């Protein structure tokens, strides 16, 4: 399984190193007999009930509430182990808009309230980076 991650890196489940950049992926495509049938690079639609889990790390990134966002929204996540993490917001072009948190966090449930009042209407992504994986969700801002 291959999931696009803001177009700059890729998560490939079932491998010893699940994070790959575009150059790595292009090299893999050139290998004769490689099993790349299709790569979807469009937006990944999610609902509040859906979550993204990894088989290598049971971190969990939940859909922000409320979504669409008019002013403030809450982003929740669960970490199975302690470690250095970051949570950032990006626009559709992959430009970092906000660094919500970065640092050492204990295992367990966490949440962050993000004030999105300065953002223009549109679609944004928030990305949780942990030592073992990167998880992305879509956020819509409507004023």
Tags for this entry?
mainly beta; Immunoglobulin-like; 3-stranded antiparallel beta sheet; disordered N terminus
How is this fold's topology laid out?
Blueprint: E1 2-5, E2 9-12, E3 19-21, H1 22-29, E4 60-61, E5 72-79, E6 83-90, E7 96-105, E8 108-115, E9 122-129, E10 134-141
Antiparallel strand pairs: 1-2, 2-3, 4-5, 5-8, 6-7, 6-9, 9-10
Could you explain how this protein is built, in words?
The chain has 143 residues and is mainly beta. It has one domain: Immunoglobulin-like (Sandwich), CATH 2.60.40.1930. The protein is built from one helix and ten strands; from the N terminus they run βββαβββββββ. It has one helix at 22-29; strands at residues 2-5, 9-12, 19-21, 60-61, 72-79, 83-90, 96-105, 108-115, 122-129, 134-141. Strands 7-6-9-10 form a four-stranded antiparallel sheet, with no helix packed on it. It has a three-stranded antiparallel sheet with strand order 1-2-3. Strand 1 (2-5) and strand 2 (9-12) form a beta hairpin. The chain is globular and about 35 Å long. The termini are far apart. Mean pLDDT is 75; it is low at 1-18 and 31-56.
């Amino acid at each position: 399984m291959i999931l696009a991650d803001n177009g700059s890196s890729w998560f490939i489940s079932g491998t010893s190193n699940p994070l790959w950049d575009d150059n790595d992926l292009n090299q893999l495509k050139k290998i004769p007999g490689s099993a790349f049938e299709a790569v979807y690079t469009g937006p990944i639609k999610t609902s509040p009930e859906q979550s993204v889990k990894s088989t290598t790390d049971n971190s969990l990134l939940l859909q922000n509430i409320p979504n669409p966002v008019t002013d403030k929204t809450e982003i929740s996540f669960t970490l199975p182990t302690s470690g250095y993490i970051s949570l950032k917001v990006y626009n559709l072009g992959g430009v970092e808009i906000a660094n919500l948190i970065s640092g050492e966090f204990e295992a367990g449930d966490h949440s962050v309230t993000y004030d999105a009042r300065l953002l223009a209407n549109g679609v944004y992504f928030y990305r949780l980076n942990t030592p073992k994986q990167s998880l992305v969700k879509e956020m819509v801002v409507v004023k």
